[in-house]
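Figure 3 (text version): structure tokens given as input.
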């Protein structure tokens, strides 16, 4: 069989960082460290929340969902990134590429939804603390987790089929060491308007709306906090939001940066585009466990006890 069949290539060729191919062996080390921190750190957070009765509370249940989503995101990119940078193996089968594309976009959307759920948790905790336990019951938390997961699956389910219907014959070389929808659809030798419109619709209706409601929740939180008479109480209330705000920034700032570079940075070197995309996918899973470990003393204590039990 040749490189292409009737409608699409048999396989795609993944690339590392264009123009920096000679540095790939040197980049493999830092990438491996990032994966170890992402997978190890989030596993420890999950163990801490699961084994410590004191952390069986809404805020920490949402944190465990975030950690699981981060681990899943890391696992979705790990096979091809490892093969590209460490083994210099660039081929990926067409269907495998579609599956990876779906998983990456799905877990990214899930993380956005979890960050929104966490902002609702902070809103209720600060603006309506007396009803916190009755509003955020275990049943409600589980329902929110299922809703976020179902939204990702249902919204992104058409993507692989939208790619599969396109005759891809321009090239089979992708711009990254993993598969993304915008990257794949650009290789089509036909009109991609439907894919572009659907991609924009997904971006605005999910990530865009999530960010809007997170911003709105913090406006309401700030309004409520400013009404507190005591300066110490105001700072204490805001301090409970710091970890979540940092997690939101770690997720959305690289995403907005990638979108901006993609839309307006046509003359920027290609490796900058690739580096920005890598930062967007790799930084949140690495930073989130570090942020929550550093800023939340209950998590720190639980992690120390987890390691103590493992040592024993």
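Below: residues designed for each position.
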């Amino acid at each position: 069989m040749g490189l292409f069949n009737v409608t699409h290539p048999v396989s795609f060729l993944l690339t590392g960082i264009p123009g920096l191919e000679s540095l790939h062996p040197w980049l493999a080390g830092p990438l491996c460290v990032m994966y170890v921190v992402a997978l190890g750190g989030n596993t420890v957070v999950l163990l801490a929340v699961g084994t410590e009765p004191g952390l069986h509370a809404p805020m920490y249940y949402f944190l465990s969902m975030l950690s699981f989503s981060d681990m899943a995101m890391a696992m979705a990119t790990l096979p091809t990134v490892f093969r590209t940078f460490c083994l210099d193996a660039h081929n990926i089968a067409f269907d495998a590429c579609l599956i990876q594309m779906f998983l990456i976009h799905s877990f990214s959307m899930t993380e956005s939804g979890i960050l929104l759920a966490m902002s609702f948790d902070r809103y209720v905790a600060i603006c309506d603390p007396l009803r916190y336990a009755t509003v955020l019951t275990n049943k409600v938390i589980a329902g929110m987790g299922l809703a976020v997961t179902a939204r990702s699956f249902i919204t992104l389910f058409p993507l692989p089929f939208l790619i599969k219907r396109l005759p891809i014959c321009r090239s089979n070389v992708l711009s990254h060491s993993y598969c993304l929808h915008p990257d794949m659809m650009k290789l089509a030798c036909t009109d991609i308007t439907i894919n572009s419109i659907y991609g924009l619709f997904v971006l605005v209706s999910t990530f865009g709306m999530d960010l809007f409601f997170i911003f709105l929740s913090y406006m309401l939180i700030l309004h409520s906090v400013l009404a507190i008479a005591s300066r110490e109480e105001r700072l204490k209330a805001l301090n409970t939001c710091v970890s979540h705000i940092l997690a939101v920034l770690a997720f959305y700032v690289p995403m907005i940066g990638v979108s901006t570079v993609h839309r307006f940075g046509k003359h920027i070197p290609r490796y900058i585009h690739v580096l920005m995309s890598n930062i967007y996918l790799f930084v949140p899973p690495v930073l989130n466990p570090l942020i929550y470990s550093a800023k939340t003393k209950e998590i720190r204590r639980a992690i120390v006890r987890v390691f103590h039990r493992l040592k024993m």
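The longest strand covers residues 11-13.
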